Fold each of these.
Amino acid sequence: MRNKVRSFWIEAQLLYHTHRANRIQQRLRHSLERQKDGGKLKRQFQSFLAAVRKQERCNVALLRQANKKILSVTRPMEGLEITRFAQSQLTQYDIAVVTTHHECGDWGDVSPSLWLQNNSNRLEGKGRILSVHTTASQKRVLIVSEEGQACLMMEEEYPCWNSLYPA
């Protein structure tokens, strides 16, 4: 019964944050159509990305309810480097979604053994963590983090890709 109540609460939060992100997105479109102040547009876009991050945290919490492999330990990445190729291929929305999943302990499409290793490294607070995510536009992204620093890159840029994610 307790899990059902928790799931209901998380689903309610997800609906709220989804609605909020949609409202901010509508305001952004309206402002763009009217050619409003660039500073205001930037603030609205940052609000939109913040709402998307909250929405994705709720998504990960729902995944955690269904799948106990996902840790409840959340650690923000202090320094995130994004390769030039990844910057040219991804939107800021894509980056916000995949980094939020990584910070919340959702390692994406990695092997079960790598998932366990990532969980162990996260709990110990040391070691390398690798996560693989697919964006809404079906682009595969790799995030490598170690001691708070992280690098986001496309699958084509990582030399050992096949050993991480067998086809």
Amino acid sequence: MGRNKLSNEEKTRVLTLLKEGASVIRVAAEVNVTRMAIYNLKKAVESLPPGTVPPRKPGSGAPKKTSRTDKIMRREVLNDPAITAAELKKNHPALLGNVSVRTIQHRLQISLKLPTRRAAKKPLLTEAMKKKRLSFCKRYRQWTPEQWKQSCSVMKALLDWLGWLQRQCAVQVMCHGTTQNIP
């Protein structure tokens, strides 16, 4: 059993096959639609001038409320993935004023294929991090600005040297036909 909807290309193909003398059963099998769809197409063509394809019937339901604003919503979400549907509605009252937040969520998730994301709820600093920072501050409380400058320049030189050393020591070795990096 086939489907009963035909695209314009399929309608043209069906009409060509029928004009060549093919049977309705063969045409329906070839296009993979129901025989009733072919009969309905033949009936619709009878009232039209020769060589024209019947236009598609208008679909049911109301038009989409956000069809004009999809590009704007997509751009906003790609610029700021953490933005919520309520914030989108608040930022664009002229475009999304009569659209519900749930509709905006559906358009973003289903139609525009943008996944939902929510940041993990976690403390900015854990207790262990706070203790380490406090002990660091107590240890170096007496340092002068000159000591800090010297310490920073030494650390930068050390990090640069470690990066250079790591690049020099990354030797590629062939081992059983595969290449491995050995630090």
Amino acid sequence: MNMNMNHLWIIVSASFVFFMQAGFVCYEVGFIQSKNVISVAIENILTFVITTLVYCFLGFALMFGPTHLGIFGGNYWLLSHLPLAHPSLGYVFVFFELMFSGTAVTIVSGSMSERTRLLPLLIAAVFLAGFIYPLFGHWVWGDLFLNQQPAWLKQLGFLDFAGATVVHGTAGWVSLAGIIMVGARKDRWDATGCRHGWVNLRFHRCLFRIVAGKTRLG
């Protein structure tokens, strides 16, 4: 009974994180042009689908598998051997961690909404969910699934609180790299960084921003 309640609590918590995806979509829609609303929403769905496939097939093994030199994990490719490794959690833990991987990828895609083509965005999602996020996650959280020696970063005393660095820090740095590559909006900013004209805050966009804030905070 206690084990079933633990599983239920993890699933409910992961579902709340998944519900943040709706908040991310509303937040992005509130800051883009009306003509791009549908395409940005579809991009968010596609990136989450790609993240799910890549993280389950590759990322989870790198992040929580048996460690190799404290740098990367392995063994659980395609989610194989999970019930044997941890019968009490298994796929429930995968579902929980997948939601945070999806959050990291969605933050990156949202930072460049309506400014990138779909294919480069999906390629970035593959690299982030399959390599960048799992490797850094292994350095910090690599011993959460298996009772094994912590990876090198955790051995140095590094602690992460609620994904502040593993999820949001990683996504933030990748977003910054993407924004630098994309560059400033030429039609909105001049050479000095000042905005051209007045900011047009349309009513429906403000509503989306409010809904996004309530979804992500409450």
Amino acid sequence: MHQYAQNLGFASYTDLLEHSKILYSKANINWYVTRLTEGMWAAWNGLDSLNNNYKSFPSYDEAKNYIDQLYYSLYGYPLSMAKLGAKINICCEHCHSNLHLSFIHEDEKVAWLLCPNILNSEEIHDSLAVPVAMIGG
């Protein structure tokens, strides 16, 4: 990890962490954005440091957006940011798959979240109705 920190322009891994912002932490993996010495920004996570991997961007917003999109693609979107068809960061209690925003009934102001396995299985899976006010536009 010392070599990883040096590749990013820091004297030590501790120094790297002190100059990094944790955006997310899940499953014992932290997701970071770090300002590099040459003015660029690095987007990386704890596993990347083991593989000497990171992505660099000219701005904090671009690095953060990259981490956001990668994180959401893996763990689902917050309900407040969801678009129709999106994987949500709420899981089925039975199979633990992420629910999907499947239908919005504007007249009743209700959105339906469905487990993707609900139609492909004889087992029980979740479907939830939530107020439309809880989802993004």
